[in-house]
Prior knowledge:
The structure is a single chain. By secondary structure, this protein is an alpha/beta fold. The protein has one domain (18-196, 228-257): NAD(P)-binding Rossmann-like Domain (Rossmann fold, 3-Layer(aba) Sandwich). Helices cover 44% and strands 13% of the residues. A 7-stranded parallel β-sheet has the order 3-2-1-4-5-6-7, with helices on both faces. The longest helix has 28 residues, at 112-139. Nicotinamide-adenine-dinucleotide binds at residues 23, 25-29, 46-48, 51, 72-74, 99-101, 121, 148, 150, 193, 195-196, 198-201.
Amino acid sequence: MIKSPTRTPIPNRFKGKVALVTGGTNGIGHAIALELLREGASVAVTGLPADAEAGRAAFAAAGFSPLILAGDMADEKFCRSLVADVLAKFGRIDCLVNNAFSFIAKGLEATREDFERSFNVGPFAFALLTQLVAEPMKKNGGGAIVNVSSISAWIAQPNRWTYNTAKGAVAQLTRCAALDLVPYKVRVNSVSPGWIWTREVDKAANNDRATWDPIWGQFHMLARMGHPIEIAGPVLFLLSDDASFITGTDLPVDGGYNGLGPEGLGQTAKIAGTK
Ligand SMILES: NC(=O)c1ccc[n+]([C@@H]2O[C@H](COP(=O)([O-])OP(=O)(O)OC[C@H]3O[C@@H](n4cnc5c(N)ncnc54)[C@H](O)[C@@H]3O)[C@@H](O)[C@H]2O)c1
């Protein structure tokens, strides 16, 4: 049985703040939205229509009822209307988490449509939402944006031209937007998760975490996979005033994936009891 760690929220850290989390009905986005709610923020989340009801039920089970806006981030009209809806309901936006992404993973066989879908859901929507929230954030004294990137932004992986180029674009968007939003008092950063137990990964593991955690865990110094809650804490840190001197950069939240050399874990895996 692979257990997710728990996290103790910092009470009222985001009280009075309004946060928009895309892809907040499931997985990493859901954990981020829930922790923001537990720390006092008013939260709006988006999700694909097929995920909206389950997302609502999961929030309700935790005692929360955020604004849930169902739609496709590749749809520019939806992106524009969702920012308008959040402003209409809450009157402000202080935090934006660009998280929803397309998982299309194709290489030599990738079509133009595959690339278009990957970029439309990913960096193009990230950029559009950033443009749309800049002025409202400025009006209320500034804000913070976190883009959910990936280890895949920084390395080569087989058959991943679509996903990895879209994540790579997020890295440059983060830097360029951070620079241009300085006059708006808006900081822009990204996080790059390692392998995290969410539904796509569960699917690939045939829902057998006990078997696959030690196998895929070997890609990380910590010799295990990560959990959505372990991404939420670092994202909330970057959104908070504690990160007031951090902008235009990426925080790897990858259990040491990115620093691991070709020798792999060596003795560490034995010590961790996973080999
Ligand atoms: N799970 C991992 O191992 C991992 C690793 C690195 C980075 N990431 C990144 O984390 C983010 C979240 O991934 P996850 O694993 O939690 O996924 P998930 O499938 O658990 O959840 C994805 C969420 O995004 C929403 N979504 C997906 N496509 C959408 C679209 N076109 N329009 C609107 N909403 C959409 C879904 O409804 C859902 O709420 C993504 O940016 C992903 O690239 C995940």
